[in-house]
Amino acid sequence: MNDVNKKTVTAADAQAFLDRVENTYIKEGEYAARIAWVQANFITDDTIWLGAKSIEKMGGLSVKFANEAKKFDDLNLSDDMRRRLNLIKGSLTLAAPDDVEKNAELAQIMANLEAMYGSGKYCVDDQCQTLGELSRTIAESKDHHALLEAWQGWRTVSPDMRDKYQRMVELANEGAQDLGYDDTGAMWRAGYDMPASEFPVELDRLWSQVKPLYDSLQCHVRTKLTDHYGRDVMGSDGMIPAHLLGNMWAQDWTGVYDLVKPEDAGTTIDVTALLAKHDYDAKKMTETAEGFFTSLGLPPLPETFWQRSLFTKPQDRDVVCHASAWNIDNVDDIRMKMCIKEDYEDFVTIHHELGHNFYQRAYNDKSILYRTGANDGFHEAIGDTVALSITPQYFKDIGLIDEVPASSNDLGMLMQKALEKIAFVPFGLLVDQWRWKVFNGEISPAEYNAGWWQLRNKYQGVKAPIQRTENDFDPGAKYHIPGNTPYTRYFLAHILQFQFHRELCKAAGFKGDLHRCSIYNNKAAGEKLIKVLEMGAQRPWQDAMEALANSREMDATAVIDYFAPLKVWLDEQNQGRDCGW
Ligand code: X8Z
Ligand code: ZN
User: Is the Cβ–Cβ distance between 209 and 215 less than 8 Å?
Assistant: First the structure.
């Protein structure tokens, strides 16, 4: 843009531009969302083709708008207009280069990668297993040979993604550079209402708050797993082989609870058994989760949610089973897509997804540019925050148990929650540490897999169970890599949900241990939460935080408070053990 043009634009031009962008996004967004929905629900050559065309069209549009927004950079505008212009420039996940062919190539790769993951299977001869089936083995088997086969089997889906991924990185970086960012990672880090260079420092600060607790948990778990599997399987470097933790990516360790639980664990509630006992199917689980949100004062889900969502895995076709929440028309056509298993894990995930849907609906009267989370960590945290209120008292309130167990010893309950939430934290951090390094070239294509395992070693103290090479592409076996969903949002969400839970419990007037607090039916807590949901992205996230937590900072002290008794217990257990790796 030359100076002459810059000087001639006015606030009225900026307003006209914003109107045009908003109208286009409303119209084209719905079209693109319907195509993406069909692609994810029916993976075929044709829907992949349509999906690619649609990404191409939207990608072209958003890059054009982002570049056009630059011409208003030097204009004196209201905060609100400036914020919307910044959102136009900053809310792309992958920016296409300003070139028709490269845009089409990038779109094609994106649609293909997503489909490769969604239709991925591990086949021996013509016996094939889906991710769901392999995950069940990982969760249930305690035989390390069976575990290893399932672990390795799922990782046969990703080597074919490698070349495509490499090319995608090149193209997306070119697009990010066209927009003035150093690379795609720098573009991602710029979306947090703070200087992009400060964001990683902020992450380090939060991680350092949680790390001592994680280290204690890792040490205890690996000791107990060594008791069970022996040193031959575990090795003696202090790291845990990734196939033994009950989850395909070792990101949630709930599956090893029985091996690591305290001898005197107190009473724990087997939610999966409870759901079975009361005949909960996918629909009933979802209705129950909806009931939690409405108990806080939110409006019930629209009828179309029930008609159009996908709740169970279809037998006759490939679908992207990774759970997601959709907002098709950016108003009321909200949907969930999930292959629900009738167990505790998916009961929590349903709350997670509905958190997205209720958020989407709460901000649907704002500018389309503000119809998103205060930051992406907020969006991921809402449903999880609600799910932290799934306590024994809550089960009594909804009639699933008769008596609330005494709270004199809740070590087992806390251990279960730590295996679910604390085990996740370093994983939540490292996925984008990998991607940021891939985008800025610190990890070259020849080191994609080695770089991945270095980070898993460093942050999680988790290692590959067998030798991996650059013929593998293990990051591609995690949905968000081929799906191109940034991951730092989940790290943030795991901190934020405890911070939000503590504040909402305070608003509810709850006195007692945080892990026993449920905000079910509490309108004071609901009011606080709804205020934040309704803001969408209209204000910097720090304002939303202030409305909720009376503070402008993210803070992990609530995590520490919540798990304090468990930390004491873990440190006693770990005495005399050689911790660390
Ligand atoms: O991807 C998700 C949600 C959809 S936004 C199901 N989660 C991350 C994952 O599964 O890896 C939720 C927790 C982390
Ligand atoms: Zn989510």
Answer: no
pLDDT tens digits in sequence order for the chain, 581 residues long: 444 444 689 999 999 999 999 999 999 999 999 999 999 999 999 999 999 999 999 999 999 999 999 999 999 999 999 999 999 998 899 999 999 999 999 999 999 999 999 999 999 999 999 999 999 999 999 999 999 999 999 999 999 999 999 999 999 999 999 999 999 999 999 999 999 999 999 999 999 999 999 999 999 999 999 999 999 999 999 999 999 999 999 999 999 999 999 999 888 999 999 999 999 999 999 999 999 999 999 999 999 999 999 999 999 999 999 999 999 999 999 999 999 999 999 999 999 999 999 999 999 999 999 999 999 999 999 999 999 999 999 999 999 999 999 988 999 999 999 999 999 999 999 999 999 999 999 999 999 999 999 999 999 999 999 999 999 999 999 999 999 999 999 999 999 999 999 999 999 999 999 999 999 999 999 999 999 999 999 999 999 999 999 999 999 999 999 999 999 999 999 999 999 99
Q: Which atom of ligand 1 is nearest to the CA of 349?
A: 6
- Distance from C-alpha of 60 to C-alpha of 427, rounded to nearest angstrom: 33
* Cβ < 5 A residues, ion ligand 2: 380
From CA 88, how far away is CA 115, in angstroms rounded?
28
Residue 213 CA from chain centroid, whole number: 21
Q: How far is the CA of 352 from the centre of ligand 2 (A)?
A: 6
- Which ligand does the CA of 485 lie closest to? 1
Question: 253 by DSSP, 3-state: which?
Answer: coil
Is residue 101 part of the annotated active site? The answer reads: no
CB 445 within 8 A of CB 224: no
Q: Please state whether the predicted TM-score (pTM) of the whole model is above 0.85.
A: yes
Pocket of ligand 1 (CB under 6 A): 323-324, 349, 352, 490
In 3D space, the residue among 395, 372, 389 whose CA is nearest the CA of residue 498 turns out to be 389
